[in-house]
């Protein structure tokens, strides 16, 4: 029996009310991602790439069409249900790291595990930080880490709960080319070894080519 797609969007829409009416950001998005598949999302600035990640990750509620993620209807799901899904089954990596400044690398990875009710949160956090090459930086706060190290902490945090889906929005956007390549090597290696699906937003054609499939979007729709 064939497993259902990890992500399935059919005519998915996202709009925001404004005094003049509505701004449509996603204008009928169609996308299907299978388990274990790594999909690059490309397109010009303002095409809806980050909004697509926000809808799939449950950070924004779609306003039309069908948006199903890991069997959950994201339009019908409560904010609590979407948050729970994100904590337990979806890992997210942003361009800007989003680490807690007052916490160490270990605490930044351990905290979401604790919030998700995971057993042995500290041991799991140490293990995943070791896998991304940061076991020697466990007690360092973000201000004491380089940009590449901060992004590797963010990657460790995203993978710590063994998610079924990883969303990455321009994860190397703030990094130089060499550091970015190291970060991407780490992220792709973790993804393939875990069997998770990944949706990766990028402007880098070389990075997109390393994925299993490239989906180009423009003006809130898939165009290629």
Verbal overview:
The chain has about 220 residues and is an alpha/beta fold. The chain has a single domain, classed as Rossmann fold (3-Layer(aba) Sandwich), CATH 3.40.50. It contains seven helices and ten strands. It has a six-stranded mixed sheet with strand order 6-7-8-3-9-10. A hairpin with a 2-residue loop joins strand 9 and strand 10. The radius of gyration is 17 Å and the shape is globular. The model has no long low-confidence stretch (mean pLDDT about 95).
Topology:
Blueprint: E1 7-18, E2 21-33, E3 38-42, H1 49-56, E4 64-69, E5 72-73, H2 79-88, E6 90-93, H3 105-115, H4 121-131, H5 147-159, E7 165-169, H6 177-194, E8 197-201, H7 205-209, E9 213-218, E10 221-222
Parallel strand pairs: 3-8, 3-9, 6-7, 7-8
Antiparallel strand pairs: 1-2, 1-4, 4-5, 9-10
Helix pairs in contact: 3-4, 3-5, 4-5, 5-6
Can you summarize this structure?
The chain is an alpha/beta fold. The chain is 34% helix and 27% strand.
Question: Which terms summarize this structure?
Answer:
224 residues; alpha/beta; four-stranded antiparallel sheet; 10 strands; globular
């Amino acid at each position: 029996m064939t497993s259902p797609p990890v992500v399935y969007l059919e005519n998915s829409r996202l709009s925001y009310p404004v005094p003049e009416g509505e701004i449509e950001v996603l204008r009928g998005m169609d996308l299907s991602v299978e388990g274990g598949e790594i999909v690059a999302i490309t397109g010009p600035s303002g095409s809806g790439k980050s909004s697509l990640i926000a809808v799939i990750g449950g950070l924004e509620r779609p306003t039309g069409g069908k948006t199903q993620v890991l069997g959950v209807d994201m339009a019908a799901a409560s904010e609590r249900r979407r948050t729970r899904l994100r904590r337990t089954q979806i890992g997210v990596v942003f361009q800007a790291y989003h680490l807690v400044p007052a916490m160490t690398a270990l605490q930044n990875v351990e905290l979401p595990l604790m919030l998700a009710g995971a057993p042995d949160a500290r041991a799991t956090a140490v293990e995943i930080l070791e896998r991304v090459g940061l076991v020697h930086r466990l007690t360092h706060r973000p201000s004491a880490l380089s940009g590449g190290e901060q992004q590797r902490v963010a990657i460790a945090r995203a993978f710590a709960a063994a998610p079924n889906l990883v969303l990455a929005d321009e994860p190397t956007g703030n990094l130089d080319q060499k550091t970015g390549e190291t970060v991407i090597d780490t992220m792709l290696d973790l993804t393939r070894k875990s069997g998770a699906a990944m949706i990766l937003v990028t402007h880098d054609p070389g990075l997109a080519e390393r994925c299993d499939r490239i989906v180009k979007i423009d003006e809130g729709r898939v165009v290629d």
